[in-house]
Amino acid sequence: MRVAITGATGFLGLHLLRELLDRHRTITVLAHAGSRGAIDRIRAFLEVSAAPDELVRRLPERLRIVETDLTLPRLGLTRADFASLADSVDVIWHCAGDSRIDAPLAELRPTNVEGTRHLLELAEVGRRRPRVLHISTAYVAGGRRDGTVKEELPDDSGGFENDYERSKYEAEVLVRDWAARCGRSAMILRPTTLVSDRPGLPGNVLRYMVERAEATGGCAALGWAARLPRRVRPVLRLAAAPDGRLNFVPVHEAARVMTRLADLAGSGGVDVYHVRHPHDVPIGVVREVLAEFLPVRLRFVDQPPERPTGVERLAEAHTAFTPYLTHRRGYDDSGVRALLGEPRSRIGVDRDYLVDCVRPGRGGRRAHAAENVYREHGRADRVDALELGGVLRFRGLAPRVEDLREGIAARLWRVPVLAYRVDGAYRRRGALDLARHVHVHPAGVNRLGAAVDEALADRLPRDRPLWEARLVHGYAADEWAVVFKAHRSLLDGASVVEVGRRLFGVEPIDTAPTPAAGMDELGAGERLRCLVPPSTRPFATRGLTGTRRMAWLGLDAKRLRAAVHDTGAEPDALFLAALTGALRDCPGVPWRRGPKPVWALVPSAAGGWARAEPGSHARPTRVRLPCDQADPARRLALIAQTPAASGVRWGLRAAMSPWQVDVAAEPAQGWLRRPYAFRGSSMVGAVPFGGVPRGVPFGVFLGTFEDTLYVSATVDTALPGELAESLCASWSTALDELAA
């Protein structure tokens, strides 16, 4: 088969050509007339992309370079040369185009519209009736910002965000009309935003947008602001949808999907396919990427500011990509799935990857104060560590550990944070070796609890990303479990729930749901008042080992719903009030001189924009539990009106101190109702466990799965072994007292 391609020296064209060289012996490159050195640019790309030496050496033999001009009739060739070229090809890849989203239509039409028209003329006169594969864009959907864009020929009823979209729409109309008039076959491929973290490649759209924003308008005028601390830089308010999302696909993966689609037989008419990444990027992540490079403080708002500042007026005049911040639409790829199966990706498109797409090597961010505090509790010289996670129970035949590793590897792109190491900054450190993170742990009959205790006792090694998953089997004939554990500097409780959804959820993953909001944060003065006085150390707990044992209890979730309905209280307040009663009445709690008020460490969620992706977003919060109150209703009323104390840097360290905190607690982080499974085994339970700081004797945690409420307790091994079970049972009794 004889193949010709336009735009082979462009951003996408180089990757397409690399895939085509693996399929065809020779390829005709329709290079732009006057742009000498096309083969040198292709050779340089192949060397950067680690192509085989033999391919690079034989490149002049395998490429036929024909200089053309898409803007001219007959591509600028003589009639004889044009006819000869048309008769020499079986397939034409039309990849050339002007991708400037801020250019006027008059500048875009000669290449994007007239160039397509002239290439279709080449296909029409060819005696071989060549097939046309036209590279368009998913953004021909235009100004439609909600819903799902189907894989079908477009219409312009919704208008367009810019002239680039209009020019690509007009080119698609030409392809559709040509195929209908000539009775020919064509394929339209619509990629979403193409990106790459490889340095030195031309045409990266994200890089182009940031460079344009830096070089024009208010950002260029504010170059001096980049030298200022971020907190005092000018503010730029941009209209954005809080639930907005965009789709970025690595260009080499897009090229691979396109060539695989081209290998399959078409329908004989015009086939349209969306080429997208399986996971959309929340708009909050896009804000973080832009804030990394622009010398302003970005603030996303629901509506454009009524009185824009000078900086905002300049940005509006020179920034063409801001309308995309309000997009909430998705792209249907059912046609691609029908031909190629469930989409997979080896790359998790997250903040760090997108930052590297703009400036290679800039990926990663500094760990914030809370993460540094948490990380100190995981140092090798500590006797304990803030490690949290969950026990995921499955019904069915236990898989091999190799199968579990393969299944997690197939979905690892959904959770990029699992590839991070935290050593003062979040950074990816090469490929992840799952053999060092996913292990097998055989257990004896009815010994799941013992296997969980062993997992809690083993500390996460510091020479790799701080997480692990243990396959536990043998404790029951038709059940197995995964004990997932991560360090608190890497994930918080809500993010652990989200990681479980992305690794074992059956439904497709699009955007991360917003975790349940924690208690409100306070001003600096209130923080100081909440940190004074310190804990009175109500428990007699000498000789703590830092090693925990765990127990849990499954309850009917209707009990919590009934208590919420009867009392009118929030679930978080009910959880803490029941914990207060459990500590007061549980036998075995080592009170010094009877029940007294207790300070509990409770996570407080960060702002909504910051929770776009799994990570360590929650902050430690002190909450006073009135264990000295005998009346359950009085305890609930006091907790419902007690503010949470969220500290600054020194306050975080104080909140983690045993002189400030007596018990760890964490309410449920969202209600889990989606189907979860792994290779035919359905998940039947998810038991949470949280991190307990140094010097704190025990912690109590709540989780939900389907119609089951799980309360779990982790207790230091220096305390009586039955205390964990007693705390769970006492919490259940205290919940009934509150409902009564």
Dominant shape: elongated
First and last CA, distance: 79 Å
Mean pLDDT: 83
How would a textbook summarize the main sheet? 7 strands, parallel
Brief characterization of the structure:
This protein is an alpha/beta fold and 740 residues long. The chain is built from 24 helices and 31 strands.
Overview of the structural elements:
- The chain has 740 residues and is an alpha/beta fold.
- The chain folds into 3 domains: 3-358, NAD(P)-binding Rossmann-like Domain (Rossmann fold); 367-504, 2-Layer Sandwich (Chloramphenicol Acetyltransferase), CATH 3.30.559; 524-678 and 687-739, Nonribosomal peptide synthetase, condensation domain (Chloramphenicol Acetyltransferase, 2-Layer Sandwich).
- It is 34% helix and 22% strand.
- The chain has 24 helices and 31 strands.
- Strands 3-2-1-4-5-7-12 form a 7-stranded parallel β-sheet, sandwiched between helices.
- Strand 21 (467-476) and strand 22 (479-487) form a beta hairpin.
- Helix 5 crosses helix 6, helix 6 (105-125) packs parallel to helix 7 (163-182) and helix 21 (571-585) packs across helix 24 (723-739).
- The longest helix is centred in the first third of the chain and has 21 residues, at 105-125.
- It starts with a strand and ends with a helix.
List keywords for this structure.
24 helices, single chain, Chloramphenicol Acetyltransferase, alpha/beta, 31 strands, Rossmann fold
